[in-house]
Specification:
Elements: H1 2-35, H2 39-44, H3 56-64, H4 67-98, H5 104-116, H6 123-133, H7 139-164, H8 167-175, H9 180-191, H10 193-209, H11 212-217, H12 226-232, H13 241-273
Helix pairs in contact: 1-13, 3-13, 4-7, 4-10, 5-7, 7-10, 8-9, 10-13
Transmembrane segments: 12-33, 75-97, 109-130, 136-158, 187-208, 241-261
Subcellular location: Cell inner membrane; Cell membrane
Subunit structure: The complex is composed of two ATP-binding proteins (UgpC), two transmembrane proteins (UgpA and UgpE) and a solute-binding protein (UgpB).
Length: 277
């Protein structure tokens, strides 16, 4: 009886997983299918097979969106944001985990508020401030905005990792003559590296896909990111949907490949961050 129930439960579990997998993969499969069609075939039958296969869509998308330049811009913005967020947030999280702060509840509320508050609330004053500083169309300036935007989440996540590290390790290192910086860099950082990797992955994906801030602060053609270049492919009166689908696939492929490659460490990092709050 138990064996039958176990098999039934396993069958239902696989069925549910198959349904979720289909829901997750169907849009990507449809995107791939339509990226190989002429625009007319997409309008006629978006679910049909391409006849013939149109590889030229990828060439046109790469050239028209100037991905050779805009991809570099996106990589620079994402890379700079990752470095700034991980370096500053790890230091902040370590201090918050090891120092007793009487107003911790207020500080937690502040972090939650800044994490959940929509960027539209302070977009206009931020724009005028950056205009006064001459930081409009400055890629590094956009990375600074992303750093401020994503740091509260990173601090809260990394703090849980530092809290899970036994204080005896720090005390032993101090007894051996290590300085505070050596304790942090040589002892703590290697232990919480899964959390830092998780933060880097999440922040990198968010900054790569972000649109509102990028399109507001980057207005010159040479400074736009890949996401903005993809948006500009759609014309006001006509659009080559095959080319647009190919451009979307080009943007999605690095993100999907990175997540597939890092999924094990990502899951481990998220699970490790939930050990202690």
């Amino acid at each position: 009886m138990r064996l039958v129930e176990s098999r039934a439960t396993l069958t239902i579990s696989y069925l549910v997983l198959a349904i979720f997998a289909f829901i997750a993969l169907f849009p990507i499969a449809l995107l791939l299918l339509n990226s190989l069609k002429p625009a007319a075939q997409i309008v006629q039958n978006p679910l049909g097979l391409p006849q013939p296969i149109r590889w030229q869509n990828f060439v046109n998308a790469w050239n028209h969106a100037k991905f050779s330049k805009t991809f570099v811009n996106s990589l620079f913005v994402s890379g700079t944001t990752i470095v700034l967020v991980c370096s500053t947030s790890s230091l902040t999280a370590y201090v918050l985990a090891r120092k007793k702060i009487k107003s911790w509840k207020i500080f937690t509320f502040y972090l939650l508020a800044t994490t959940t508050a929509p960027i539209q609330l302070y977009l206009f004053p931020l724009y005028f401030g950056f205009a006064k500083l001459g930081l409009i169309n400055n890629i590094f300036g956009v990375a600074l905005i992303y750093t401020a935007l994503f740091s509260p989440f990173a601090v809260m996540l990394l703090r849980t990792y530092f809290l899970a590290v036994p204080k005896e390790l720090e005390e032993a290192a101090i007894v051996d003559g290590a300085t505070s910086w050596q304790v942090f860099s040589k002892v703590m950082l290697p232990i919480v590296s899964p959390g830092i990797l998780t933060v880097a992955l999440i922040i990198g994906l968010n900054s790569w896909n972000e649109f509102l801030i990028a399109t507001t602060f980057l207005q010159k053609a040479d400074n736009v990111t890949a996401v903005i270049a993809f948006y500009l492919l759609s014309g006001q009166y006509s659009s080559d949907w095959g080319e647009i689908m190919a451009a979307a696939l080009i943007i999605v492929i690095p993100v999907v490949a990175l997540f597939v490659f890092m999924q094990k460490r990502f899951i481990e990092g998220m699970a490790g961050g939930s050990v202690k709050g």
